[in-house]
Amino acid sequence: MASTTEVAAAKYDLITRRLQEVLGGDSIKAILTEGKRSPKCYWGTAPTGRPHIGYFVPLTKIADFLRAGVEVTILLADVHAFLDNLKAPLELVAHRTKYYKFILLAVFKSLGIPTSKLRFVEGSSYQLTKEYNLDNYRLCSIVTEHDAKKAGAEVVKQVESPLLSGLLYPGLQALDEQYLDCDFQFGGVDQRKIFTFAELYLPRLGYAKRAHLMNPMVPGLGGGKMSSSDPNSKIDFLDPPAVVRKKIKSAFCEEGNVADNGVLSFVSAVLIPISQLRIERRHGDTGADSEEGQEALGDQSPFALEGAPEGTVFSIYRKEDFGGSLHYSTFKELEDDFENKKLHPMDLKTAVADAIVKLLDPIRKAFEESEEWKTTEKLAYPDPNAKPEKKKKVKVYTPPPPGKGKNAQQAATKTSATPPVPVPPPGDDTIQAAVEAAKEGEVPSA
């Protein structure tokens, strides 16, 4: 039977595997070694642009946290989304927050991660309180403009004349660690400057210094950072198969070049980790998370072809004429083959596109089956080219006063224009009858 120290070490290895950097890991080790409680973490996202498949990196990693017994909070940072320069007008934030929650829940289920173990929190639920705002003012009284601007340089949209809202962003993210009661914050390596800002300033407010874990960033399809604001660099979670294949086909993937290769990086950061996750689940290796996979959506098999050798985490189909299919148990093997030009870019692209289509299929189905989600999507991301619908003017009839109006005028015209009916002159018989009646004193009838 493993000792307490060995169990703690195994959990720490699980928590930190495949990360690019860890700051303050000793505090996590101490909690695990003491064994009195579970570590607590939070991962946050600001609901601005449409989420893209780069989100698979942190969301897949959350499975490791749950396996290690970590209590996970998902922050939907709606206030941050408003503060981030020019990204999300206030009137759209509520719709986008709701849209993000739909997406995240569908992605977690597609990965087999039990959503019942996740706590979802909207930033505005506590960031508008008196206590939080007083702490924000305290922070503003000790943070220099230089430090605030430097902390948000990789995250907050940079413009020539920065708004004050962008300078507040790093401080609020630091305070979130205290108000969400976490032991460590998890995010991309692009958040590093905000994390070190929090480590410096939270203790100055009398709060504990937290640990920070960072996952690598997936390069965009054309190189550089995959960004929600650049449609050519990313694949959306709801992109249909034809769009996915077209984007992957046009992605930068030069033969033999393993630097800044978004296609290769996606295999390393997303596809192989998900394959490993599914293989481990098949073997029952889910640690403290006995519920993993119970509410999974879609095909949960690893990205290996039928008949692939045991331990294969990624397969690439090729016809026998071209040497037959390739099977890899590690990313290093695949990367070496690509660098040595044993693996052609088109074969790699085809395999990656097939895997992404497979990953996105249950998410798209969940979207198509939810009328509420589809309505939310239209409200959150209205078509900028759509012409506003012209509303037909409804005519309201107001009766004219007596003797006025069209009908009254027509009646008057008709009365004046109609000649009187002529009365024929009396004949001889009538005259004679009148004379006889007058003699007898009678009045003739008409």
Automatic annotation (TrEMBL):
Region (Disordered) location: 282-302, 371-431
Enzyme class: ligase
Signal peptide: none
UniProt biased composition (Polar residues): 407-418
Cellular compartment(s): Cytoplasm; Nucleus
BP-aspect Gene Ontology terms: tyrosyl-tRNA aminoacylation
GO CC aspect terms: cytoplasm; nucleus
Catalytic activity as recorded in UniProt: tRNA(Tyr) + L-tyrosine + ATP = L-tyrosyl-tRNA(Tyr) + AMP + diphosphate + H(+)
Entry GO MF terms: ATP binding; tyrosine-tRNA ligase activity
EC number, UniProt record: 6.1.1.1
Assigned keywords, A-Z: Aminoacyl-tRNA synthetase, ATP-binding, Cytoplasm, Ligase, Nucleotide-binding, Nucleus, Protein biosynthesis
PANTHER family, per the entry: TYROSINE--TRNA LIGASE, CYTOPLASMIC (PTHR46264:SF4), TYROSINE-TRNA LIGASE (PTHR46264)
Family: Belongs to the class-I aminoacyl-tRNA synthetase family.
Protein name: Tyrosine--tRNA ligase
Biological classification of the source: Eukaryota, Fungi, Dikarya, Basidiomycota, Agaricomycotina
